[in-house]
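Note to self: keep these together.
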Amino acid sequence: MTTENPGVMPVSAIITEGAFLSSNRQRLFVLYFTGTLIDLVILNLFNEFSDKVTVTSFTMSLLAAVLLQLLLKLTIALEHRVAAFFNSKSGALMKFLRFFCAWLVLFGSKFVILEALSFALGDSVHFSGAFHGIVWLVLVVVTMLVAEELVTRIYRRLS
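Structure:
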C-alpha cells in the first residue's frame, strides 16, 4: 500500500518500470489495438441486440473489427488531407468546398466500407435494412467512433 494514499496499491506493484517507457510505435499499437477491441465490442452488441446486423461467428466479428478499424482510420486520414488542402486556400467557396468534400469523403466511405466487408467476409457479416444496410452500417460506425472518443477522453482525464 502507498503512504500517499493508504489502502491503494501503487501501479508499480503491477506494472514494471520499463513498461511505462513507450515509443511512438508502441503508442500507435495501443491506439489501434484499443480501437479494434472497442469496434469488436460494438459490432457484437449490435449483432446481439439488433436483427439488422448479423455476424456469423466471433472470428468473423474480429476480422470485421480489424477491417473496420483500418478503413475508418484511412477515411479519417483522407478527410484530414482534403480539409488541409482547402484550409490552405482562402475564400468562402474554399470554406464551402472544405465542408462539402469532407462530408463527401466521410459519407461516401461508408459505401466503400460496406463493399469491402462484403468482399472480404461475404455473408459472414451482413447489414440489412434501409438502403441495403447502409443506414445500420452508419449507425454502427458512428457508435464505434463515439465509443472510441469516450474511451480516449476517459483515458486523458485519468492523467
